[in-house]
Hints:
With about 350 residues, the chain is an alpha/beta fold. It has 11 helices and 17 strands. The longest helix has 16 residues, at about 225-240. The two termini are about 30 Å apart.
Amino acid sequence: MNALKIPHSFAYYLPQFHVIPENEEWWGKGFTEWTKLRDARKYHARQTIQTPGELGWYDLNDVSILGQQFSLAQSHGISTFAFWHYWFGDDDLLLEGPAERLLKSDVEAEFCMAWANHDWVKRSTNQVLREQRYSQNSARHFAYLEPFFHDPRYRKIDNKPVMFIFSPSKHPHLEAFVDDMHKRAQDSGFEGMFFIFDHTQKNDAFSIHCRKYLNSTAPLKFGSSLTRKFQKLTKRFRQSRGRPLLLEYADCAAHITQMDMADAKQIPVAFPGWDTSIRHAERGEILLDNSPELYGGSLDAIQNTLAGRKEDDRFLVFKSWNEWAEGNILEPSAQHGRRFLEETAQRFVLPHAREAWKS
């Protein structure tokens, strides 16, 4: 099959590649996402710890990096960076700098916000470093986001700013929050908001409050329920022995090909790999042998699903563009170059893709 036209494809984008005072206080001087990657250790002979390729060990204080990343992404079928947005209530934010610098710049990069509505936790001690605080009234949250929404680079669909919510079930006032955001968007000159919920399934009662939904953890939940119970027991045992849980990416890719995507409201998730031992050491999970070829095979199933939908309903989420400390990356690495991106571009193309970025 030729590359399929998809109007909307989002890649989760992590902005933790610059120093902030909070991270230095919690993790040490000079801490960024790269710190975890530089300190990573191998736990298995077939584990590949990917390191940066042509973009290098970048610093997001330099906003031009975003332009380079986006040109590369868009030329390989990715239309939008979904910036992780860490809002804890009452103008309490973390890692907001890259998006704010982008807003003030003329860098070409199309984006939206993905609200990571969870506590900021130090997992080694279970210490809550920033607590998520919720409100029924979205006045302050909307006021912060409004300048982004009006930027022509911000992704709108039907004149509605796109906003992801990572874990809608955790919001105790979700319906009121969504309704309030819609009203404020309309007062600001939009038709409303275009909400996309993560960690959501069709039968969840709150799914009626979103335009689209996905479940980005589903690719990791392969095997029978009995197998998953065994995996949890195995994980506890291995962690007690100082080892992370080891699984096979091939099983994950095969699971993706079998997932039921009958509901056009559900967005498929393209999943290039997983290795949270980089971030969490023995408390992590590793998918071994996440090759570009197996990733491409999982994309074939997603392409077949989307080919059966009207073009306007073809949405795709990539998890993720640059989660280096979770082994979950599409941008070029020293080990694989652009091969994950090339597998993507073979199967998906944007209706108005620009000429491929040249390094």
